[in-house]
Amino acid sequence: MHASTLHSLSQQRPALRLRWEALLRDEPVNSPLAHPDSLIHLMDWTLDNFFAELRHPSTLPDDILVAPRNPHEAAFASPDDAALCPCARNPFIAYFATAECALVEILLPLLSADSQAASLATARAALQRIARTEISTFCAICQQRHDDGRCTAGHAAAGSSR
Hints:
Blueprint: H1 3-11, H2 13-26, H3 36-39, H4 43-55, H5 91-107, H6 116-140, H7 153-159
Helix pairs in contact: 2-5, 4-6, 5-6
């Protein structure tokens, strides 16, 4: 991402956080841990890590990054994505899906047409690196998982009724 774009985006951080919180509060709550009041205190930490990742990208295999079909769709938009979370009740799925939507809304007006695709890809990749770590960490401690990593059938059914 070009330094001037990164600077412009960092200037929009308060607007990004406000938009993200509004989008998160509009999401259905599928568990007590997914309640926005339980998650909003993590936003500043996540944004700190996001901007640090944009400045100094970590190395991550490209095959785990997800490219959405269009620029207005979040890569984490599907709560039923079994690759992310078998039971679909991980509160970080909605947390990061709304973060990505807010990011696109704030970032698109800052971009010229010729830099739009590359800048969106860079920003999404940075957010996804953080999201994948947080989502997988939370799933690893899921109380509904069997020793083989599968969620219980009743828990999975409850999560997919969203």
